[in-house]
Backbone:
């Protein structure tokens, strides 16, 4: 339960963290929770477009009366004020949210809120002493902590993917013909993978395996050369003759330029894992889902399957912390060199 702080200064709107400062506080708390295995909650109030400043003042005053010293309050967006509640479960966060909401509504305001839990998935809070109240959905904070693509990165993706599709068109046509002549089955293979925020999307690749290869995956699991939940075999017996060449040259990945144009992927970003493998990742490893997945990243140009899974995940998180235009351009150049000399990891 929460203790009322008597040591906080009188609240003004200026006492609420700005958006950038608040998101930094949430990110630091997330790293702390990943390290010690505990949890935190986020309560997000929607102030609406009208009179947001007035409601912000009311919220600041309510937070001064209701929150502990270790809690934080700030703007999540121009119209949303959020509370960061370390060590607080969904029930406690919902109680705080209800108390603050009722207090502001009593003053003639109108305020809606949502509660998020990290780590955790969607659950229902069932109040014991309030049978007639609707059960409140508690959302996973992972869906709130995603980082949208910066404008420079989206523009780079559109230009790069468009040029990639145009330049690779003759090679892709030849690959499609070779696949069709080599073995029965569809030319393009689709697989559901975990995208931004863990949301599933269909990834496109040229088919490099025999029909029904996915059904054999479980039987081959013990032969995986990649530790952790990821499944990778260098000399996979399911790969066709043409498929082996397509993989060695990375031509099988060319259809993913279309994923980039659609916005499911970026040119540079953590490689998306199949949904079942992504769900087996530890909480700190799932931080890679806060950014849009990509065609290439640090792991692809650093050794691939020779790198332990934990180090692979650390590489992805290191990229997230240093996501800059120059860094992306360097990784794209390193990937191009690796593809030309057949050193790119698959």
Residues:
């Amino acid at each position: 339960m929460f203790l009322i702080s008597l040591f906080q200064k009188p609240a003004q709107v200026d006492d609420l963290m700005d958006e950038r400062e608040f998101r930094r506080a949430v990110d630091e708390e997330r790293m702390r929770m990943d390290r010690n295995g505990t949890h935190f909650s986020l309560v997000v109030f929607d102030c609406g477009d009208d009179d947001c400043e007035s409601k912000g003042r009311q919220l600041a005053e309510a937070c001064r009366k209701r929150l502990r010293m270790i809690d934080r309050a700030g703007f999540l967006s121009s119209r949303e004020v959020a509370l960061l509640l370390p060590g607080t479960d969904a029930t406690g966060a919902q109680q705080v949210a209800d108390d603050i909401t009722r207090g502001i509504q009593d003053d003639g305001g109108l305020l809606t809120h949502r509660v998020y839990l990290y780590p955790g998935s969607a659950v229902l809070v069932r109040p014991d002493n309030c049978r007639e109240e609707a059960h409140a959905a508690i959302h996973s904070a992972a869906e709130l902590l995603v980082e949208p693509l910066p404008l420079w990165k989206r523009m780079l993706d559109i230009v790069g993917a468009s040029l990639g599709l145009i330049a690779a068109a003759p090679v892709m046509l030849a690959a499609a013909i070779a696949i069709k002549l080599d073995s029965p089955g569809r030319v393009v293979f689709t697989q559901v993978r975990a995208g931004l925020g863990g949301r599933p999307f269909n990834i496109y690749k040229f088919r490099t395996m025999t029909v029904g290869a996915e059904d054999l995956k479980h039987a081959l699991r013990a032969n995986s050369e990649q530790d952790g939940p990821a499944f990778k075999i260098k000399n996979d017996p399911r790969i066709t003759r043409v498929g082996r060449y397509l993989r060695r040259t990375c031509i099988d990945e060319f259809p993913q330029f279309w994923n980039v144009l659609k916005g499911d992927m970026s040119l540079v970003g953590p490689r998306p894992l199949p949904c079942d493998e992504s769900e087996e990742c530890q909480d700190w490893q799932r931080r890679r889902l806060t950014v849009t997945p990509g065609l290439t990243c640090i792991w692809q140009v650093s050794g691939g399957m020779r790198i332990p899974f934990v180090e692979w995940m650390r590489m992805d998180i290191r990229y997230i912390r240093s996501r800059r235009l120059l860094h992306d351009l360097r990784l794209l150049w390193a990937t191009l060199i690796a593809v030309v000399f057949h050193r790119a990891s698959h």
User: Anything to note?
Assistant: The CA atoms of residues 200 and 239 lie 25 Å apart. Residues 13-143 form a domain with the Alpha-Beta Plaits fold (CATH 3.30.70.270). DSSP finds ten helices and ten strands in the chain. The chain has two domains: 13-143, 151-340.
